[in-house]
Amino acid sequence: MKKRMLALLLGLLCTGLTACGSTDTAAKDETPSAPTVEQPEPEPTPEEVRRTAAEQYADGLTLEEQVAQMFFVRCPETDAAALTAQYDIGGYLLFARDFDGQTKESVANTIAAYQNAAKTPMLIGVDEEGGTVVRVSSNPNLRGTKFQSPQALYSEGGFDRITSDTAEKDALLRDLGINVNFAPVCDVSTDPSDFIYARSFGMDAEQTGEYVRTVVTQMVSDKTGMVLKHFPGYGNNADTHTGLAIDERPMDTFRQSDFLPFQAGIASGAQSVLVSHNVVNCMDADRPASLSAEVHRILREELGFDGVILTDDLIMDAIRDYTGGENAAVLAVQAGNDMLTSSDFVTQYNAVLAAVQDGTIPESQIHASAVRVIDWKMQLGLISYDA
Q1: What are the Cα distances from residue 85, in Å, to 16, 112, 117, 339, 382?
Q2: Domain for residue 42, yes or no?
Q3: Domain membership of residue 216 as a residue range
Q4: Does residue 36 sit within a domain?
Q5: Is 317 a catalytic residue?
Q6: Residue among 312, 313, 338, 375 flagged as catalytic
Q7: Beta strand spans in 70-115 (E)
């Protein structure tokens, strides 16, 4: 009997405890939850602020002006200021003839006249690679000696010498009013018989990548525009100035070698990449790289480049062998180029504008390219904006 009574009491006690526990849980469940605190929007990055400013600037340009911003024009020998005043051209590319017999003062004054005539500040470019390609320092009035090749510089003092040479080069160009150097050469070449060898770093992909990283880092610091060239890489191919070159190397070669210097430059802040006129069979067997949408897709998506893509000169024999100059300009834009290097500006400008007006090229693409060009100019301090 006592055992039964004890079991009954224990049962009642357990029931009571369970009920109390349930009541406590219910009470807790009825406690109002704390109000949700909205997280503040993250501050935009400096790059996002600049890109927004570039979009707003491009919005203020007419369609005609946006198209003109897409041209890096070989500077005409006469009436260059008048031409940019009429069209608001994106940039002028200077060659040795533009410096013949000139002094530092006369070059600076001439370039200043171009800038004063332009509605939108211009990119003023030159090929001053050092070694065999020296448009500026070939004139002793502008520099006592020619800039040395990358190979000679490295042999003389390693990457420290590359850095100091780049800084000196940037300072000279900026003093003259030149804000873009079409360098560095990113092509991987270790064979002295290659067309591009003398202009290259002359070492393997890893060392060439370190060279490109060194040059780009200094140029970014100096606010001098750079152009990585010649994507996707010349290798041992022929000179496209004199005819069409066919590259039959497999894609693995590009991914494991040729792309590496370009990736190094992009990671270091490169603002522009120049695409060659080689036909690269593993990417697009039907079109030169400069006119290939697939090559541009690879540069954008695989290498992650979102800056300005520009062509080599559309008047070069490799393009003439493939298509006429007027048609080449339209094809180049359709492929995805943001800027066209042109020795026949008026003809090619009118062809692109007509293609936009008849719907062959969407206006949105022109606007996107104009934004990239303006963004480049903002990075170089040519166009001010609220940072």
Answers
A1: 93, 13, 5, 19, 17
A2: no
A3: 55-379
A4: no
A5: no
A6: 312
A7: 71-74, 91-94
CATH code for the domain in which residue 199 is found: 3.20.20.300
Residue 325 has pLDDT above 70, yes or no: no
Q: Hey, is 342 helix, strand or coil?
A: strand
Both tokens assigned to 290:
């400069």
CA distance 252 to 247: 13
**How long, in residues, is the chain?**
387
pLDDT at 317 (0 to 100): 77
Q: Which amino acid is at 311?
A: T
- Dihedral of CA atoms 337, 338, 344, 349 in degrees, nearest 10, equals 110
Q: What's the pLDDT tens digit per position in 104-113?
A: 999 999 999 9
Annotation says 241 is catalytic: yes
Q: Which two tokens stand for residue 39?
A: 């997280």
Q: Which of 241, 317, 344, 367 is catalytic?
A: 241
Report if residue 38 sits inside a domain. no
pLDDT at 12 over 70: no
Residue 45 lies in a domain: no
pLDDT computed for residue 196 by the predictor: 94
pTM, entire model: 0.88
Q: How far, rounded to the nearest angstrom, does the alpha carbon of residue 159 sit from its chain's CA centroid? A: 23
Q: Which of 230, 322, 241 is nearest to 276 (CA)?
A: 230
Using one digit for the tens of pLDDT, what is the confidence trace for 230-247? Answer: 999 998 775 555 567 899
Domain count, the chain: 1
